Amino acid sequence: MTRAGFDRRDVPLFDRNFFRSNECVTRIGEGELGGKARGLVLTRDLLESRFDASGFPDVEVHVPKMVVVGTDVFDAFLERNQLKQTALSDLADDRMVEAFLRAEFPTEVLGDLRALVEEAHTPLAIRSSSLLEDAMFRPFAGVYETKMVPNNQPDADTRFVKLLEAIKFVYASTFFCSAKAYILATERTSADEKMAVIIQEVVGERHGERFYPDLAGVGRSYNFFPSKGVAPRDGVVNLALGLGKTIVDGGTSWIYSPARPKAPAPFGSTREILRSTQLDFWAVNMGKPPSYDPATETEYLLKADLSAADYDGTLSAVASTYDARRDRLVPGTGVDGPRVVDFAPLLSHSDVPLNSLIRELLTIGEQALEEAVEIEFAARLPRKGSPGMRFGFLQLRPMLVSGEEVEVGDDELARPDLLLASDRAMGNGAPEAIVDVVYVKPGPFESRLTPKIAAEVEKMNRPLVAENRPYLLLGFGRWGSSDPWLGIPVNWGQIAGARVIVESTLPGMNVEPSQGAHFFHNLISFEVCYLCVSHEEGAGSTRRGIDWEWLESQPGIDETDNVRHVRLEQPLRIKVDGRSGRGAVWHP
Amino acid sequence: MAYKPYNSFAIAQTQFDGAAKLLGLDEATCDLLRHPMREHAFAIPIRLDDGKTKVFRGFRVQHNDARGPCKGGIRFHPQETLDTVRALAMWMTWKCAVVDLPLGGAKGGVICDPHNLSDREQEAICRGWVRQMARNVGPVTDVPAPDVMTSAQHMLWMLDEFEGITGTKVPGFITGKPVSVGGSLGRTEATGYGVIFTVREALKELGIRASDTTASFQGFGNVAQYAIRLYEQLGGTTICVSCWDQEDKASYTYVKKDGVKLDELLSVTDRFGGIDKSKARDLGYEVLPGDEWVKQEVDILIPAALENQIAEENVNDISPKVKIIAEGANGPTTTEADAVLRERKVRVIPDFLANAGGVTCSYFEQVQSNMNYYWGKDEVLGKLDVKMTAAYVAVSATAQKRKLYMRDAAYIIAVDRVARACRDRGWV
Q1: Number of domains comprising chain A
Q2: pLDDT confidence of A137, banded at 50, 70, 90?
Q3: A56, part of any domain
Q4: What residues of chain B lie within 8 A of the CB of A105, using their CB?
Q5: DSSP 3-state assignment of A57?
Q6: How many beta carbons lie within 10 A of that of residue B335, not counting itself?
Q7: pLDDT for A192 beyond 90
Q8: Are residues A333 and A443 in the same domain?
Q9: What is the dihedral of CA A522, A186, A433, A559, to 10 degrees?
Q10: A293 shares its domain with A427
Q11: CATH assignment of B184-428, given 3.20.20.70, 3.40.50.670, 3.40.50.150, 3.40.50.720?
C-alpha cells in the first residue's frame, strides 16, 4: 500500500448520521484531501489490514472520527469572497484572520457542517491538511495553524459559529507571513497552495473544566540524536501529559528509546531530572468561555500545572515522585513530593503495552511507506470502570533521512581554518554553495534584546529567500524559543532561508541548546543542518568555540544594531555526520 | 398554452381529503382542517392621487394556528378572490408543518393592480390593510410577509403603521423586511437554495452525483436564479432556462447545451429581469418558444415560475431521461399531469416541500426580529440547509416506508402534525 495508490473516493461522502456510524473518516466536498488527511486515511487502512489487534488485548487503537473538508471548498471560499488578492498580499496575520472571518462560507457545505456540530458533542480539533505537503511528499508540520474548539456550548448555533470561525482561521493561516516564507523556501508560492481541513474528535477525557488525554506522543522510527547504547534505527519517542501541543511546540517532554524503554534517562542526577521535567500541560478549556479572540490558535486552550493533573487523578500513571531523603524517584504519586513526568509507572511498572504498541505501529508505518516514519498519537489510559486503553492514532508521515555518508575526522577538526565545530549536530550531508552568513553580533548581545534581534534577522532573511540564496545562520541561545530570555524568539518563516543553523552559548546566554526542537520538522524537510556550539572550550575534540575574528573581518553587505550579514567570495566548507552527530564549518 | 379555469380552494380541499383518508382522520378533525378557522374580509377606502376615493377589498384568512402563530404572505392582485386566499392559507399550514416550523398558515390579499397605482396609493393600501387587521395580527398571532406584487417596501409601510398603532417597536410583526431594517441575511437566496437542497438529497438517494446531471429551469426570477447558482456550485450543469419577455408578452426558452452561465445571462437582462433575446443569441444561446423548457433531455426539471405549467397537454413531452422534478413554484403541476408523473415514477419533490426555504427563512427572520439580534449569513443558510434536508429526509422515508408518492407522503406528514396539534390542544 502506498500513498500514490490512494484515491479520495476511498473516503465516503459525509452522511449526516456519521457520528452514529462505524465509519471513522468521511469527507465534505469533491476536492483533494491534502497530505495530513491522506496520511490518516492510510493509517485507517493500515490499522484494518496490517495491525493485529489480538496482540494487544484491552487496547483500542483507532483513528479518531474525522471529517475532511476538501480543497474545493477552500477554493470556493477564496473565489466567491474575492479573497485571493488579500490572501497573497503582505497583510499582517491578525488582519488576514479578520478578512477571512468576515467572508461567507460556501453555501453548499453549510448544512453538513451544521449537522456535524449537532451530532458531535466532544471537543473538536480543526487541523490543516495542505495540498503542497501532499504534492511534495514533504511534511509541513507546524507551518499552518490548528485550532481546537470545546464544542460544548449548549446551543448548536454557537457551536456552529465557532466551528466556522475555526475553519476560517485555519484557512487564513495558509497565508500567514511565516507560512508564505516557508512556501517560498520550497521554491513554490502560496498561490500554489490549497488547504483541506480536518475536523477531528479530540482524544481525551473531561476533568472539570479541562479536557485532555492522559498522554500524547510522537514516535520516530529514526533517531537523529541517538544517545550512547542506542542506534539511530532504534527510533525515539517523546511523551507528554495532556495535548500534543507541548511536544509540537518543542516544550519539555519525556524522551526515550523504544528499544530500551526502562533505561535510565540520560541525566547527570535525579535533581537534574527534576529541573528538566514537564511542569505544565495543555488542555481544551471546557469551562468559562474565554474572551472572544478568534484570531488566536489558543483561544480555547488552557495551560495547567501538574497540581491540576494530580487533582484530576491523571498524574499517577505517568509521573514519579521525588524522594528527597533517598534522592531517588518513586514511581507513582502515592506519596507527597515533587512530581516528575517520566512515565515510569507506565513504561517500567505496568502491564499496559504502550511501548510495544508504539514500536509495532512504527514498524507497520515504515513497512507501508518504505522509509522512516513519524507518528503522532494520544491515549486515554485504563482506569477503574474502564479497563482498556484507548489509543488515538493522529498522524503518520514520512521522515526524510539522508543516506549520504559524511565523515568528520579528528584531523579535519584540528585544521587552522576551522570556523566552528560541534559534536551535537543534527542533519547529514555537506551543503555546498553557501556564501552568505547571517550572525548575531556577540559584542552588543543581551538577552533582553532577543525580540529585536528576531525582527532584524527576519529583515535579512527576506531578500535572501527572494534571491534563493541559502545561508548560514548563527546566534545565541535557542533559536525559536518562546521565552525570549532563553533565546531568539523567531518562527520558522523568519529564518526560512537558512540551510545551516548554529546555536551557540555565551556567558550571558548559557542555556541548554534546543537542538532544533522548535523546528524539528522544518529541519528535516528542508534538510537543514543544525549545530550546537559551546562558547567554552572544553576537553571534547570539537569544543573549539567560534572563530569570531575571521567572521568579523569578512565584507559585510548589511548590518543592523545586532545582526550582520556577510557575503564570502567562495563557499564555506560544511560537513555534518548524522551518525556521529559531529559537524563542522571551515573557511572557504 | 391555455389552461382550464379552476377553483384552487376546491383543489386544496381535495388534496386534504386524500391525505385525511390515508391518515384515517375523524370527521371533526376533517371538518376543522377543511376550512379556515378565521376569515377577515374588509374594505380599504383610499384617496387616490386624482383626489377621488376608491374602496379596495382586503382579506386575511387564518387557516389554522394550532402549531403556532399564523404565517403567510399578502398578495396584491386584480384577480384576487377569497377562495384563492383560502387555498393559499391552507397550503401555508401544510408548508409550515412539513418543514416542522412552529407556525400555522394564513394568507392575505387586496384586490388591486399595483401597476396602476402610484407608490403613495400603494402605501395607503398597506397602511389601510394594517389598520383593519391590527387587532388580529402581530408577532405572536399572525405574521404577514411579501407575496405576489408586494415587496420589502410594502412590508416596511405595514410595519410602520402597526408600530404607530401599538406604540411599540415590533420588528417581528412582519417578515421580508430589508436587511437594514430588521430583515434576515440569506432571505433572498433562501427559496432557490432550499429547492436545491432537496434536489441534492434526492440525487443522493438515487446514487447520482450532481456533477453528472443536467437541469432545465422554467423561470428566471429570484427563485430560479439562486437555484441555478447553488446547483452549479454543487457541480450540476444547467442547460436551459425559460424567461418571460415583457415586450413580447411571451416567454422564451434559452438553451446552451454545454451549460448556461448564470452571470452571463444576468448581464443581458432588461429592467424587468427578462433576458434580451438578441444579446442571448450573440452569446451563443439557442432561443426557442417558451414551453420548450419542459421538453429538454435533462435529468432534472425545475418549474420555478407559475402555477399549472406541467399539465395534461405537455406532461408527455417530458423526456424519459428526467428523474427528478422539483417544484420551485407553487402548484406548477396540475392534478392530471401529476397522475402521469406518478405513473412514470418520476421523483416529484412537491411544491410545499421544495419551495419551503422561503417560509423557513421568514421564520428565521421572525425569530431574529423578536430577539432583535441578527445572525450571520452562514448561520442562517446552515440552519436552512439542516431544516430543509431533515424535512426532505422525513418525507422520503415516509414515502418509502408506506410506498407512497412523495406528494402524498409530504401531505400526510404535514396534515398529521397539524391534526395532532389540534387534538393535543383538545380542539377535536
Answers
A1: 3
A2: low
A3: no
A4: 378
A5: coil
A6: 13
A7: no
A8: no
A9: -80
A10: no
A11: 3.40.50.720
Which residue range is the domain that position A220 belongs to?
A: 203-399
Query: Which residues of chain A make contact with B197, given a CB cutoff of 8 A?
Result: 111
Residue A132: phi and psi, rounded to 5, are -65, -35
Tens-place pLDDT, residues B357-406: 999 999 999 999 999 999 999 999 999 999 999 999 999 999 999 999 99
Mapping DSSP to helix (H, G, I), strand (E, B) and coil, where does residue A482 land? coil
Hey, of B193, B371, B378, which one would you mutate to test binding to chain A, going by the most A CBs within 10 A of its CB? B378
Q: Which CA distances in Å does B263 have to A45, B229, B259, B302?
A: 44, 9, 12, 19
Query: Which ipTM was obtained for this model?
Result: 0.73
Say yes or no for a CB contact (<8 Å) between B189 and A107.
yes
Q: Between 3.30.390.50, 3.40.50.150, 3.40.50.10860, 3.40.50.2000, what CATH number should domain B38-181 receive?
A: 3.40.50.10860
Q: Name the nearest CA neighbour of B161 among B192, B133, B140.
A: B133
Which residues does chain B have within 8 Å of residue A118's beta carbon, measured at their own beta carbons?
Answer: 386
Active-site annotation of B, residues: 107
- Ranges assigned E (strand) in A46-117: 59-62, 66-69
What cell was used for A546? 567560534
A160 touches chain B (CB under 8 A): yes
pLDDT (average), residues B9-28:
94
| CA-based nearest distance A431→chain B, Å | 49
Q: In chain A, which residue's Cα lies nearest the Cα of B233?
A: A108
Q: Which of residues 91-150 of A touch B (CB under 8 A)?
A: 104-108, 110-115, 118
Q: What is the pLDDT of residues A56-80, one digit of tens each?
A: 988 999 999 999 999 999 999 999 9
